[in-house]
Amino acid sequence: MSTVAKPAKTLSVALVGNPNTGKSTLFNALSGSRQRVGNYPGVTVEKKTGRLEIDGRPFTLIDLPGTYSLAPRSPDEMVTVDVLLGREAETPSPDAVLCIVDASNLERNLYLVSQVLELGLPTVIALNMTDVAAEKGITLDVAQLQTQLNLPVVPLQANRGKGLPELRAAIAAAVHAGPPQVANPLPEKFQAEVTALGQLSAAHSDPPLPRFLLERLLLDTSGYLAQANLAGVTPELLAAIPAARQRLQAAGIPVPGVEAASRYQWAASVLKGAMQRPKERRKNSSDAVDRVLTHWFSGTIVFVLVMLAIFQAVTWIGEPAGTVIDWFTGLLKAGVVAVVPEGALRSLLERGVIDGVGGVFVFVPQIALLFLFIALLEDCGYMARAAYLMDRVMVRVGLSGKSFIPLLSSFACAIPGILAARVIENRRDRMVTLLVAPLMSCSARLPVYQLMGAAFLPDKSFLFGLLHLRALAIVGMYFLGIVVATLVAWILKRTYFRGPTPPFVMELPTYKWPGIGTVTHRVGEQSWSFVKRAGTLILAVSIVVWALAYYPHRDADLDPALLAEQQQIETKLAALPPEEVAAAEEKLSAEEPSEDQLPTTSPIDAPTPSDSPAESKPSEPLPTSDAGVLLTQLQDVNNRIAGAHLENSFLGQMGHAVEPAVKPLGWDWRLGCAAIASFPAREVIVATLGIIYNLGEDEDESSPVLRDTLRNATWKGTDRPIFTIPVALSVMVFFALCAQCAATLVVINKEAGHWGWSLFSFVYMTALAYIGALVTYQLGTWIGL
Amino acid sequence: MTLADAPIGSEGCVAEIEGNDDIALRLLEMGLIPGTEVRIIGSAPLGDPLELEVRGYRLSVRRTEAARVILQS
Asked: Is A138 close to B28, i.e. CB distance below 8 A?
């Protein structure tokens, strides 16, 4: 045998507790930055583990979701029980349990403790929020409590780091202690029935069902455990349960009521003499705050203000974030241009990789800011009140108040909105919320609305200038999103996600000041997990779409006249003195990109007719030097080459292929192509329209050239304009409803736990977008807009 | 009388929880067992849900859920 000393075995400790007890704060305080976040297989429960060392001995701390009870009634809740019983395959079986309780609310917290004790694992009680208890006038005798509980109890103020050394010592000592010596509070007759079920289980399955689950099976009248297909739940066992319940009922032990009665009785006996609640209800500061914040008038005002602030901030950050990302990607692209010669590789790096990475990071500020607000609201106790205030409204759609903030955030950006849906415990409600969240008009739709509105809707206003037609159209798009989302949610809740209404029985926690550490940790964790988990996929989609838009990229497919023109200009430029060219280049790039650099009329079937409004303005200053004129011409010819390459690309071919399908929407192949190219992100349509209309990729929604070019675009071989008011409206409606955002689909896949849901979102939203655009165009044409 | 019928500001004592489903189980787990004192603190601006005080903490329940809580007469 080997004599080499084995390193000390890593012991694992499970952390459980009610929601709002400071569990995450304690988890962070104990494990610091040594954390790993993942998912339990098959469910959407976050798996968080941390490492800590006590006296040189390594421990793994498993953070389990906050819960009021260990009675599982959904697969998500089952995970907690499976981990605690060592039945979860990829998690080490816990050697001890650390149970955090709220000292100001001990009775209800001891309910969970009472269930934890039946696991038969060494247990340590972390008595948190002793300061809140003191403020409420509750007196606690910790020594007495420890004696009556017969468990180690460590008083704690996790948010101030008080009591942590004692807690570590208690954990280290507990793993060597045996199982807790606490009698099961349920009546003897009940326990005898559980024992009988155990014998039945031992006879029919190997290994038999653990006693904890046998008891749960007997108590679970909701029927979840019986139907959950758990290993060890045999038909014989299920058949024996109704009779057992009947016998108990006859003996005056009603199932399920007996559990709560026995455990609360136990809690009362443990607290007798150890805890004293004030006889008179004391008015504390939390009550005073609550009176204002849940008042019908002041509560509503504060709620509206808080929601407006969140919405404004998350929307606002989008723009500077975009500018910074653009600046940064611009810098990277300049670096690429300097190092990599022109060709496929440069294009891949510029359009595929750098834009793809930019497309990941552009969401980070919005995610970070939204989670800053959510973490603040949650930590101070307002989050539950927001759900309380909005519940009535959301119930009409079949959801609960908890869906409100995720859906509101989706008006800024669906990604943080979908991530925020994690707070909804009920899976059906969470799924419906995250599936309809992308229908809310996010800030990325605005450029599309603005471009179409400004180019095609007449500059009309009604009611003495109060109502502006273009603004009305944009507001209409927001309403369209809300109405469609409501309908879709309503349908989903009555079909696939049909089921009993989940309880809204929810604690409204005591208000407190948010902990800076907890809040910043949460923000960092959310942002990083988005980049890590969604980043690669978003980048991959961006590269695929780049490849479709780039290849085959054969010059042989182009009009030879176009290449000859390019050659001719380049030869002329080469003949000029280099200083002159450089000076003209500088001058051109210094000028604002605007109408004055209008290209000469193109020889190919460019959609820019000769009576282009920009050209008809004689006052336009022309570039002064010869070199300037040539450079402008070169830029124009290059833009036309880029446009022709795009038309010949796989994407262009796809655009042509879908033309018959998009014609009923009033679209030509260019719009079809731009819609496909905007799959990674809606706002890409503006740049794609720029390339496809030979203007280069740098056009944005406020560009007058792009606007005018679109106005003058005609169907090939005719002078019939492509864009009319019905077409503009049909494009707007399409983009209001479509799923053209790869990042959203990637996040839906991660949060829903299956890529099928991303596919579902894409299909249903595209179908709705198509139908919406079709109806809009046909109706608009019919009424003669 | 059920908790849903009790006027805001009133106090009562739980006699029984109706039903065996998810909602009934949750109400029991949260401490609304026979013999427990409950006070109705208020309601959300649209009249639903209700805010209760039970065992020294605040609890939110919908009116449909409160109707499961039978109060002692």
From this structure: no
Contact A408, A304 (CB under 8 A): no
CB contact under 8 A, A107 and B61: no
How many other C-beta atoms are found inside a 10 Å radius of the C-beta of residue A488?
18
One digit per residue, the tens of pLDDT, for chain B of length 73 reads: 899 999 999 999 999 999 888 899 999 999 999 999 999 999 988 888 999 999 989 999 999 999 999 999 8
pLDDT reported for residue A95: 93
Exposure b/e, A357-371, CB count within 10 A at least 16 = b = bbbbbbbbbbbbbbb
The pLDDT assigned to A358 comes to 82
| Residue-wise DSSP of A262-329 | HHHHHHHHHHTTTEE--SS----HHHHHHHHHTSTTHHHHHHHHHHHHHHHHHHHHHHHHHHHHHHHH
Q: What's the rounded Cα separation, in Å, for the pair A473 and A460? A: 11
Q: Is the pLDDT of residue A220 over 80?
A: yes
Angle, helices A382-395/A298-339, rounded to nearest 10 degrees: 100
Q: Do A507 and B65 touch (CB under 8 A)?
A: no
What angle in degrees, to the nearest 10, is found between the helix axes of A298-339 and A364-380? 150
- Chain B positions touching A69 (Cβ under 8 A) are 29
**Host H or E run for residue A100:** strand A96-102
Q: What is the pTM of this model?
A: 0.81
* CB < 8 Å to A298, chain B: none
Using CB atoms, pick whichever of A111, A389, A509 lies closest to residue B44. A389
State whether residue A206 is helix, strand or coil: coil
Tokens of A108: 């209800």
Lowest mean pLDDT among A253-257, A265-269, A410-414: A410-414
Q: pLDDT digit string (tens) for A660-673?
A: 888 888 888 888 88
Q: How far from each other are the two terminal CA atoms of chain B, in whole angstroms?
A: 7
- Please give the structure tokens belonging to residue A288: 């005073």
Q: Which two tokens stand for residue A715?
A: 């169907």
Task: State residue A604's pLDDT score.
Answer: 37
Beta bridge mates, A154: A126
Answer yes or no: do B58 and A504 touch at CB < 8 A. no
List the single best residue of B18, B25, B38 to mutate versus A (max A Cβ within 10 A). Answer: B25
Contact between chains at B20 and A500 (C-beta distance less than 8 A): no
What is the rounded distance in angstroms from the CA atom of residue A202 to the CA atom of residue A213? 13
Contact indicator for A77, A67 with CB cutoff of 8 Å: yes
Q: What is the DSSP string of A390-427?
A: HHHHHHTTT--GGGHHHHHHTTT-HHHHHHHGGG--SH
Instruction: Supply B4's token pair.
Output: 């849903």
Q: Which of A73, A294, A507 sits opposite B59 (nearest CB)?
A: A507
Q: Is the interface score ipTM higher than 0.85?
A: yes
Using beta carbons and an 8 Å cutoff, which residues of B are at the interface with A? 17, 20-31, 33-34, 36, 42, 44-49, 51, 55-62, 64-65
- Of the candidates A676, A647, A644, A650, the residue with the CA atom closest to the CA atom of residue A662: A676
Closest CA to A441 of A419, A417, A423: A417
Contact state of B25 with A107 under an 8 Å Cβ cutoff: no
